[in-house]
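Figure 2 data, in text form.
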Amino acid sequence: MADVAGILLAAGAGRRMGRPKALMRSADAAPWLTAAVRALQDGGCSPVVVVLGAAAEEARALLGGLEVQVLEATDWATGMGASLRTGLASLTDWAGSTGRDGPGVEERPIGATAALIHLVDLPDVGPDVVARVVDHAAPDVLARADYGQGAAHPVLIGREHWPGVIASAHGDRGARDYLRGREVLAVDCSGLATGRDVDTPADL
């Protein structure tokens, strides 16, 4: 299997939810943040990079004991694009950090073939979805999960596309502009999850 880095975007303020989604918990009190990290890890992603922003210190505390690299997107308030740029740019710069206050950073580029972009507000997306999308990894690939209702997350971005995505990711559009007009493989994940993002308390 190709080496695939996982990037979890968890920086938003969750204004419609009433609190940052990085701090949300499921009915059994399990944090969405840690569940999403484990979905990436158990689905075959290594390393896993978590990009925080709003309530970063509280969210960081939830990640104790997990083997993740924690970044803060200083411009997170401008939209998802800032978090995506932060996560992708980090993959070519360093590896080995467990957080700002954790062990020292080992300076070396990450040799990942692709990056899988996941969102913290998809609580029913588990490792089976991640593994199915990761299975298509290649340096030139663009792929994303499809739950029977069109393009969704997670999104797989081959290494050759990272510079283009970083350059085009602005506001809340993330990689949308870059993906538009390009061949993007739809990976059938229907039956594994709904892939529905949870934006408001009514969605719970």
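Caption note: The CA atoms of residues 11 and 52 lie 4 Å apart.
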